[in-house]
Write a structure and sequence with these properties.
Layout lengths: L1 E3 L2 H7 L9 E6 L5 H12 L3 E6 L19 H11 L3 E3 L3 H4 L18 H4 L3 H16 L3 E5 L3 H14 L4 E5 L19 H6 L2 H14 L5 H13 L3 E9 L13 E9 L2 E8 L2
Parallel strand pairs: 1-4, 2-3, 2-5, 3-4, 5-6
Antiparallel strand pairs: 7-8, 8-9
Amino acid sequence: MLIARTLSDLRASLTAPRSGRGLALVPTMGALHAGHHALVAAAVASGALVVASVFVNPLQFGQGEDIARYPRDEPGDLARLREWGCRVVWLPDVATMYPKGDATTIVLAGPAEGWEGAVRPGHFRGVATVVAKLFGQVRPNTAYFGEKDWQQLQVVRRMVDDLHLPVEVIGVPTARADDGLALSSRNLFLTPEERVRAPRLYGVLTDTARAIAAGEPAAHPLDAARTVLGREGFGVDYLDLVDGRSLTRLTVPRPDARLIAAARLGTVRLLDNVPVG
């Protein structure tokens, strides 16, 4: 496994002979877990040469969000990526990604509006900008993103379509613990008591999706879900039925409908989503 920390090192690493199926990128912010393993495994299974990036992106952290608190474990991340079959790891620093005098960011609308875009203003500008930079640096044929961050996945797909970028964005199903909790690096900050309660978000979502799919008008089960989560100690930022691609709110399900939710439990924001129907 090759490790690149400068653009010249990255370019040298990518001059090695590639398989016939091209180059696959797995963008991460580190603190890798089984959810990231699922992304790397899908990329490896494609037969492509797999590049994983590890970069905690300051541009996607908003005011009041503590980037210094984000978990970091570079030695552990490198050991995991080597074990998982990654061929190149890209470890840029902030000065490489955002050199002095840089003046370009990605401005978004469409699926970036509302939900996370409303709760965390500027977040998707940071996500799209760093992803566009990674695509330009690595020049992958495919890029793998987890479905846990459903809105982020749709934002990246929209950006790729709108800018005619030559990369296929592949979504990988959410990796979950045995009790249903969506895996996330931030789960490390749950207290033992919160960790016991956290899977209720997924449980309430699946119950709500089942009720809506059975034909019940969406408003009632959505209101009931928010009430249940509030009663059980969650601070619900949003829980709604949306079109899976555009993220516009729906009142009745469509074939591509999703339930999306973000809820706070202690100091941790949990994101999750499930299909409906």
